[in-house]
Amino acid sequence: MTARALINVPAKARRGEIIEIKTLIAHPMETGFRVGLNGALIPRDIITTFRCTYNGEEIFRAEFSPAIAANPFLTFFTVATATGTIAFQWEGDDGFSAAESAPITVE
Amino acid sequence: MLRTLFFTSWRGNAIFAIAMLAATLPVFATEIPLADRRSDYEFMGAQTRAMQDDDSANPGMLGVLDGEALWNRRDGAAGKSCADCHNDARSSMKGVAARYPAYSPAQGRPIDLEARINQCRTDEQKATPMKFESKELLGLTAYLALQSRGMPIDVAADARTQPFIAAGREIFNRRQGQINMSCAQCHDDNWGQKLAGAPVPQGHPNGYPVYRLEWQSLGSLQRRLRNCMSGMRAEPYAYGAIENVDLELYLMWRARGLKMEAPAVRP
Fold first, then answer.
1. What is the arithmetic mean of pLDDT over B195-222?
2. Alpha-carbon distance values, B66 to A1, A8, B217 (Å)
3. CATH code for the structural domain at B48-267
4. Parent domain of A52
């Protein structure tokens, strides 16, 4: 199953308006510090990087740590500058990679 | 007095018992009056409430996405999907979760929504039942429960289900475990007080499966009940045990009329 993600970007905005972007992705964020039922350490499995681009230009980036809860939720603001696409990318341990995008119309 | 009358008549005169069962169950002295019942949502902090209110912030909705995909996926030897029989869940499953646990003639007793899903899987899809607390079963249950969001809980309390509601209530009121407590001592007698700094809610099941922050995942009502039992240092009933289902049914009856919130967020 591919990672489920929910993103919330306003479909329309006025030029220059400050908009809120919300992202939520399904991920266990296994810390690497927990011990399993067999007594062995459960290997770390976290998202390490999140990037958001607006028409190809990076507008937000985050580096994740093991202390971040499962199914990380991120919200941030940007200025609506042009009609186009806001794209999201998550990368993590064990080759984890997920991508989503949302269109935005700026008037 | 009324209570004694009910139980003795239930064992004794069958006709009188049916007449009694057709009426409502007698109310225990300590039970919360209908008008005072409040969803556990109202005992949560503002931030947790905000998380539940926004579907793009509620991690339970990720499970709903899994459930929606499973609803449309063909599976088992019969090669059927849920949608092949039930079509669009948004109309066919509306209000269903608010009526479960419901009486199953095949089992001769009430079964919960998870068991009902697995019954469909084995009988109709000819597939293996999903495991309790698996991502699949939680996702599908959450997807179905979402279709009842905002609808009042309305489990059947009739001649067939009332003995099981009564059995659930007996467990709810029974002292058990090493610290010799009953569910009712917290959730009927002391709701609104604090337990180690956290508010004691009334313990209504109107948001299950819930995304519990402590679990960092979706979880079923049975998981929550087992959790409370180990907190009471009692032996939890196994997943699928009839005692758990009786308790689920009693809790739903006790919360009758409260609005469904699934998938709710709980601390």
1. 96
2. 9, 18, 13
3. 1.10.760.10
4. 5-106
The pLDDT mean for chain A works out to 95
Nearest to A71 among B55, B56, B62 (CB): B62
- A34 in contact with chain B, both atoms CB, cutoff 8 A: no
DSSP state for residue A42 in the 8-state scheme: P
Closest alpha carbon within chain B to A72: B59
Q: How many domains does chain A have?
A: 1
Q: How far is Cα B196 from Cα B175, in angstroms, rounded to an integer?
A: 21
Q: Which of A21, A31, A71 to mutate to test the interface with B (most CBs of B within 10 A)?
A: A71
> Does the interface ipTM go beyond 0.95?
no
What is the rounded CA–CA span in Å between residue A35 and residue B256?
42
CATH code of residue A45: 2.60.40.10
Cis peptide, bond prior to residue B59, ω within 30 of zero: no
Q: Distance between CA B166 and CA B182 in Å, rounded? A: 15
- CB-nearest partner of B59 from A7, A8, A24: A24
Residue A70 to residue B216, Cβ atoms within 8 A: yes
CA distance B57 to chain A (A): 6
Structure tokens at A37: 């039922």
Is residue B251 within 8 Å of B203, Cβ to Cβ?
yes
Catalytic residues of B: 228
Q: Record the pTM.
A: 0.88
Whether residues B56 and A69 touch (CB distance < 8 A) is answered with no
Q: Nearest CA of chain A to the CA of B216: how many Å?
A: 6
- Put simply, the answer to whether A6 touches B66 (Cβ < 8 Å) is no
Beta-carbon contacts of residue B179 (< 8 Å; ≥ 6 apart): B232, B233
Residue of B nearest to A70 (CA): B216
pLDDT, tens digit (0-9, with 9 covering 90-100), for B43-90: 999 999 999 999 999 999 999 999 999 999 999 999 999 999 999 999
Phi-psi region of A84 (alpha: psi -120 to 50; beta: other; left: phi over 0): left
Q: Name the least confident of B3-7, B95-99, B151-155, B185-189.
A: B3-7
